[in-house]
Design brief:
101 residues, mainly alpha, 3-stranded parallel β-sheet
């Protein structure tokens, strides 16, 4: 998944990509670097550095490299499903609500 954003609030596309075991190449934005670990589940690239975007695409076009990334995603994100994601969101919201009470 290629996401050459200049601005982004929260990229749900990255979570969807990881859920379906797809590596991500995205612009180096704070919301992206919280999710993407360079070399494990994708790459972050400086904004507008299209040469580096191209290099990462070529790297992942190699079947062996792509397979290694898929294995890494499966090993590091084994429980990415709707129930686990919703549970995590509910946990965060519950803790915030308790702080405000």
């Amino acid at each position: 998944v290629l996401l050459p954003f200049r601005y982004c609030a929260f990229p749900v596309y990255i979570l969807k990509a990881l859920k379906f075991k797809k590596p991500v190449i995205a612009s180096e934005l704070p919301c992206v670097t919280e999710i993407i670990s360079n070399g494990k589940n994708g790459f972050t690239v400086p904004i507008s550095n299209y040469k580096e975007f191209t290099e990462k695409i070529i790297f992942l076009a190699d079947q062996d490299n792509y397979s290694d990334f898929i294995k890494s995603i499966e090993a590091n994100y084994p429980d990415l499903n709707m129930n686990s994601m919703l549970s995590a969101y509910i946990s965060v919201y519950d803790s915030l609500i308790k702080k405000w009470k």
